[in-house]
Structure formats: C-alpha cells, structure tokens
Amino acid sequence: MIYIGFTSRVNNIMDENIKKLLEKQHYSVIGHHSAVKLCHWMKQSLFYNRECYKQSFYGIESHRCLQMSPSVTQCTQMCLFCWRIQRFTEKNYQIVDDPGFILDEAIKAQRRLITGFKGDKRCDYKKWLEANNPNMIACSLSGEPTMYPRLDELLQECHRRGFTTFLVTNGTRPDTIRDLNTLPKQLYVSIVAPNEEVHKKLCAPLIPNAWSRIKETLETLPSLDTRTVIRHTLVNKWNMSYDTIPLYARLDDAASPLFIEVKGYVFVGASRHRMTLSNMPTHEQIKEFGEKLAKELNYELVMEKPDSLVVLLTRDKNKIRINN
Predict the structure, then answer these.
(1) I need a surface site. Which of 129, 226, 258, 263 has the fewest CB within 10 A?
(2) Are 313 and 260 within 8 A, CB to CB?
(3) Owning domain of residue 309
(4) 280-297 confidence digits (pLDDT tens)
(5) Which of 265, 271, 279 is nearest to 310 (CA)?
C-alpha cells in the first residue's frame, strides 16, 4: 500500500469508466478514492429555505454541510436498498491519499459544484456565501468510510479546522471504531436487519462474520465518548414487520445509543433496479414502528420529519442539539 501526500502529482488509478460514471452522476472525484456530491438538502436550503432532518433534529446547517466519502468505491456490503451503483465495489486501497489533501480538495470541489447557483434568482445569496465555507462534514456519501486507513487523521484534521463531523458506518469493522483516537462528533451505526438471516439477504455482506462484527460494534458503543446514533433503515416487506421490534430492541439495548433514527427506505437511484416502489414505507408506517420500538426500549419519540421519512427516539431530550 502506498501513502500519497500530494496526490495531484500522481496519475489517478481509479478505473476511468468508474470515474466517468461517478462524474455523470454529479460526483466530484478526489484523488484515488474519495468524492464529494451535493446533498439534495443543500439545494433545497439554498433555493427554497427547506432544511434536512439533521438540521431539524440536531441543529447543523444544511447549506454548510459537506457530504463526502474517503472510500467512494470501497465497501464491505452490497445492500439491496442502497441508492448507489454497486458493481464497482472494491475491498482494498492501492494508494492511500493524505487526509489534508482530501479535505482541501473536498472543500474546493464543493465550491465548484455550487458556483452556478450564485446567478440563480432563487438562491439565497447570504447562504450561498456561507455554503462556500462549510463547517460540517457528513462522511456518509458512499462506500464504508472505516475502510479508509487514515480515518483517524482525517477526523483529527477536520476538528483542527473547526468542522463538526458526522460519520456513518455499517458496523462491520469494530476494530477500526474501537481504535479511533479521534472520534467523530456524532457516530452513526446503520442496523438494517433484526437478525443474521435478514442481514445476509438484504445487505449481501462481502466479508465473513459480518453479523458478528456488527454485534461487536454495538457492544463497543457504550464505551465511546461521543454522541452515538443507531439508524434503522426500514424496507417494506423486508425488515420492518412488527414482530421484529423485540429483535431490534435487543440490538439497540446492547448499544445504548443516545439516539435512534427510524428511517424509511426511499425508492431512488440505483436501488430502483433492485427494489420496487412498494418497498418504500409511508411516514405513518415509520412513525408507528418508531413508537412501538420506543415503548419496547423505554425511549421517547421526540421528533419527526415526514418529508424525510424519519423519526427520532431518545432518552435525553436535552442533548438533541449539537454544539458546533
């Protein structure tokens, strides 16, 4: 494995067909394995003053959020509900880019992607200026970020520059989570199956013992000094029957997260080749599931965002808003 500090001087080894496909889908590819893509809610915030659920729940600013991944084509699973194209999933890195380089180029990429918004009469100019200087990193775009070998350094660099960091992991790499010296400000673990049988069918793991690794990650969460979130992405006819609620509750209880997000699968992107519209639950279904899960765990359903198909559960309403 080669570590590269100044990647711009090295020929990119990402397959050109993959790179072209990503760019066609409006990703901005960075170096050998990273990418930025504007979040739907970034545009909604700039044009229509609508906010994402993370702003509604936790207080981050949608228009100042930089959605990126240091592992855009590397993942440990091939989840059927994932809206990304998956046929290029890789397991390894041949060259590892420098964290400072990734962050510098991610900010530049975000600025390029929003350049054209400035002249649109719908765009809030004050917000646009602020969007050019993001203060929030959502490490959740594509792939599995814990596969990036220098994740600890990337988080450290983000915090050194004053960024709030949200990291989303599928939980299959507990050693990486446990060994982080620098934790994200908010750590999400996606738990999208109530048991190993459903996990194998719905998430199609590419590594052995994926389910036991996920359970190990859940058992690690209570020892971590950061805000923790379990996210249940619910797919109708797959993982959200009411008899699964005690199984999810058992997993959540082991993790004892500060928050639980119960979120509905959305029929978008490449998932449309693997799912149908009938797999997308209604907000009413999500809310009812969330209420039953909250009762099982002695949590409280405290917030909801119907246009994002999500509800928020917690035991401590005083800690919902994050301090930037």
Answers:
(1) 129
(2) yes
(3) 2-6+15-319
(4) 999 999 999 999 999 999
(5) 265
Alpha helices in 60-173 (DSSP H): 99-114, 125-131, 151-160
What CATH number is associated with residue 37? 3.20.20.70
Give domain status of residue 106, yes or no: yes
Q: Quick one: angle between helices 283-297 and 245-255, nearest 10? A: 60
E strand or H helix at 312 = strand 310-314
The C-alpha atoms of residue 126 and residue 26 are separated, in whole angstroms, by 24
Strand partners, 55: none
Q: What is the pLDDT of residue 22?
A: 84
Give CA torsion, residues 272, 278, 280, 284, to 10 deg. Answer: 170
Is 88 inside a domain boundary? yes
Instruction: For residue 34, give every residue at least 6 positions away whose Cβ sits within 8 Å of its Cβ, in sequence order, or none.
Output: 68, 69, 70, 71, 72, 97, 102, 105, 106
204 assigned to some structural domain: yes
Q: Token pair of 81, please? A: 């509900």
Q: In this structure, what token pair is assigned to residue 243?
A: 């008899």
Number of domains in the chain: 1
Distance, CA of 149 to chain centre: 18
Residue 10 has pLDDT above 60, yes or no: no
Classified as helix, coil or strand, 33 is: coil
Q: Is residue 263 part of a domain?
A: yes
